[in-house]
Amino acid sequence: MPAAFRSAFAPCEQPDALVIHCSDPRFQKHFHEFLRAHLGLDTYGLVAVPGGVQFLTAIDYLPKFSWVGWRWLKFLVDRTRPRRVILIVHDDCLWYKDSRFWQHGGDWKGAALSDLAKVREGIRARFGSLGVETWFARIDGGEVVFEAVGL
Ligand SMILES: [Zn+2]
Description:
CATH class: Alpha Beta
Number of helices: 4
Radius of gyration: 16 Å
Structural class: alpha/beta
CATH superfamily: Carbonic anhydrase
Bound molecules: zinc ion
Strand content: 15-25%
Order of helices and strands: EHEHEHHEE
Largest sheet: 5 strands, mixed
Shape: globular
């Protein structure tokens, strides 16, 4: 195996998007395929953490996470000026299904969709005209289906 790997570098002035999704390894290739093949994104900034958008809503439970998360977003929006923001939550999310979040009565999907809407509104409130698209990635047999949410 060669000691180095080379990849063509093509700087861009403005990325197509800023994307926030979960870091669940089972979904990474599906997220990537969706962003590239369906949305046609060529360049995008990415924040991938357990639970995706959840870290931006944990003001009561994890206030420092939320503070840092919004700082990261402000930095990425100010410095890279993405054309739009893509938010994705997904089926069978281990983070949302973790018992620490059972205050939502076990309705992890409802909590994830609620957080998706909260973050969409938070981004609109903070960054004005920046377009925000929200998606749910659902497992359907042997496929992952990406469905638009709250259009
Ligand atoms: Zn997840």
